[in-house]
Design a protein that fits this description.
By secondary structure, the protein is of the alpha/beta class. It has 19 helices and 30 strands. The protein folds into two domains: 349 residues, Rossmann fold, CATH 3.40.50.12780; 124 residues, ANL, C-terminal domain (GMP Synthetase, Chain A, domain 3, 2-Layer Sandwich), CATH 3.30.300. The protein starts with 6 loop residues before the first helix and ends with a helix. The structure holds 5'-O-[(S)-butoxy(hydroxy)phosphoryl]adenosine (WT7).
């Protein structure tokens, strides 16, 4: 077992993983159950992009999350479900029950003709059936593709078409505070252009009125009447696809990152164990939605692979009031709490009495993920939630990395405000300068790359390996480029400074500026647009859109609303522009490229030094933009 209990052990494992990665990861993997052992721990490299882990082995994710624990901890709680409605008692599901439910769902899928290698798309609220559903997919070797319930019909359709999903699983509706999100209705809209979907399973949650299409749509509770609760897991090859998860990049449509079975499983298991340091009786709560990678790796797979207890919460942090998180922590005696800086900042902005009402004395470890956490938020979290007693693991990673890459290990390594600190054993971060040269000084700032493969790395972009190569290995050949910038201090601690590409991070949600621009440009009054992120007190980054409108607008406010509606339609409410400025032109270089640097400065509210604008094609628009700036 490769559990790291103290700092010396951490240093020892770093050395071991460096000297002999094969032996290291082989030993980690031996904790898990394999139907057939591997021939080779790893092969492939970042030049040929043929990365493989545990080749020759067969295993199954659901076996490792469930069956493996039945003898030793069948009656232990696997999942505690907290509904949106605070009056509803939490639901506890033990490992035996979860196993049964997963088998039954897997049987439902099988009865509908779903086979190994088929893609099942999930567009659901945060209900246990979503977790059960993805585990059931893994049980029969189907590939899951979860689409966050806040995406629009058009986004959902795009994601379904891209991976040609056969089955869609949804809810009638989702609870979000007082509101009901019409999930099924969005599916109906999306399915107008998704011929690959033959069947829709609807899990009843909100009992709102929906329409059911005959021979296509079925209620889950009806299908379950003919399902069995005993269903053997399908042996999967280590490199068989496990799931696809779409994420935004600087250009083009969202990419479907593909993770494979063995490597991802080992990485989720190992990183959860060592970063969070859970005891058997501890209770872990990750507030992320399963629609994001954090909900995959640390709400579902990490805790279950380790036989721990995981909490799933349906609703909003502020429903019915800003004390809901703290209320749940006290009620369930949560020991490990993992959330995003944006939630911390939003709750920090509320009256402290929402926190002081609660004891929070069960907490042992706090975590942060999704975006850089600023010092003020870190200190507030540390003092008011952790009572100065709990370490904060600021975990840096990405959809592409599968699991945590740089982070303190709770109670093992030091936590420093706003720093992700040290890499996990076996992870080789480096900083490179703009020419791609590795910066060898310890104290430095640069672009964050990873030098060599680790088990959890996404293997490809679904259906487009060339795009995978180009996006992650095109900038600095032979290295994985993260898209993030970072600083390293004299002791080797990393501090992530944020994206250095055209990706913005709004409330921990990753959005490509190009996607938002494309949505805005669908409006007939807009010729062209440029979107940049700007510092936002709660969201981390807000969305500032500069839109070229060639004629004077009668009602700019109305067009603003229409633009927001357009973004809503193409992407979803998470990409709503906060600031929209109408301009007659955008600053462009002589080759026609938008000078985003200038727009970013405007967004930062700092126009004192815009640099040299004389080489622009149209320097005069800069004055106009500055005059009309919204920050
Ligand atoms: C991007 C990845 C990883 C799960 C959630 C987001 C930013 C993530 C941190 C952190 C600073 C962070 C990076 C990264 N990010 N965690 N602890 N400190 N930045 O996954 O949607 O794939 O986004 O989120 O910019 O590249 P994602």
């Amino acid at each position: 077992m490769k559990t790291i209990h103290n700092f010396d052990e951490y240093l020892r494992q770093v050395e071991e993983a460096k000297a002999n990665p094969t032996q290291y990861w082989g030993e980690v993997a031996r904790d898990l159950e394999w139907f057939k052992p591997w021939d080779q721990v790893s092969s492939g490299n970042f030049s040929e992009l043929n990365i493989k882990w545990f080749e020759g082995a067969t295993t199954n994710m659901s076996t490792n999350c469930l069956d493996r624990h039945l003898k030793t901890r069948g009656h232990q709680t696997a999942l505690i479900y907290v509904a949106n409605d605070p009056k509803q008692a939490p639901l506890k599901i033990n490992y035996l029950e979860l196993h049964q439910k997963v088998c039954r769902m897997a049987s439902v899928f099988t009865n509908l003709g779903i086979k190994k290698g088929d893609v099942i798309c999930f567009y659901m609220g945060m209900v246990p059936e979503l977790m059960i559903g993805i585990l059931a997919a893994t049980r029969i070797g189907a590939i899951h593709s979860v689409v966050f319930g806040g995406f629009s019909a058009q986004s959902l359709a795009g994601r379904i078409q891209d991976c040609e999903a056969k089955l869609l699983v949804t809810n009638d509706g989702g609870h979000r505070g007082d509101k009901i999100i019409p999930l099924k209705q969005v599916c109906d809209e999306a399915l107008k252009e998704c011929p690959s979907i033959k069947t829709v399973i609807v899990h009843r949650r909100t009992k709102n009125n929906i329409s059911m299409t005959e021979d296509r749509d079925f209620w889950l509770h009806d299908l379950e009447t003919t399902a069995t609760t005993v269903l053997p897991a399908t042996p999967m090859k280590s490199e068989d696809p496990l799931f696809i998860l779409y994420t935004s990049g600087s250009t083009g449509r969202p990419k479907g990152l593909m993770h494979t079975t063995g490597g991802y499983m080992v990485y989720a298991y190992h990183t959860f164990r060592n970063v969070f340091q859970m005891k058997a009786e501890d209770i872990f709560w990750c507030t992320a939605d399963i629609g994001w990678v954090t909900g995959h790796t640390y709400l579902t797979y990490g805790p279950l692979l380790n036989g721990n207890t995981t909490v799933m919460y349906e609703g909003l942090p502020v429903y019915p009031d800003a004390g809901r998180f703290w209320n749940i922590i006290d009620q369930l005696k949560v020991t490990h709490f993992y959330t995003a800086p944006t939630a911390i900042r939003a709750l920090q902005a509320m009256d402290l009495s929402f926190v002081s009402k609660y004891k929070l004395d069960s907490l042992k470890v706090l975590g942060s993920v999704g975006e850089p956490i600023n010092e003020e938020a870190w200190e507030w979290y540390h003092r008011n939630i952790g009572k100065g007693r709990c370490p904060i693991v600021d975990t840096w990673w990405q959809t592409e990395t599968g699991g945590i890459m740089i982070s303190p290990l709770a109670h093992v390594t030091e936590c420093i405000p706003a720093h992700a600190t040290y890499p996990l054993p076996g992870i080789s971060p480096i900083l490179v300068d703009s020419s791609g040269k590795e910066i060898t000084e310890i104290e430095a700032e640069g672009n964050l790359c990873i030098k060599s493969p680790w088990p959890g790395i996404a293997r490809t972009v679904w259906g487009d390996h060339e795009r995978y190569r180009h996006t992650y290995f095109g900038s600095y050949p032979g290295m994985y480029f993260t898209g993030d910038g970072a600083r390293r201090d004299s002791r080797g601690n990393y501090r992530i400074t944020g994206r250095v590409d055209d990706v913005i991070n709004v409330s921990g949600h990753r959005l490509g500026t190009a996607e938002i621009e494309d949505a805005i440009n669908t409006h007939p009054d807009i010729v062209e647009s440029a979107v940049v992120g700007y510092p936002h007190k709660i969201k981390g980054q807000g969305i500032y859109a500069f839109c070229i409108c060639p004629h004077a607008l009668e009602s700019p406010e109305q067009v603003r609303q229409e633009l927001i509606a357009a973004v809503n339609k193409v992407i979803g409410p998470i990409a709503k522009p906060d600031l929209i400025q109408f301009v007659t032109g955008l600053p462009k270089t002589r080759s026609g490229k938008i000078m985003r640097r200038i727009l970013r400065k405007v967004g930062e509210g700092d126009v004192s030094n815009l640099g040299d604008t004389s080489t622009l094609l149209n320097p005069e628009v800069v004055d106009e933009i500055v005059k009309g700036k919204l920050r």
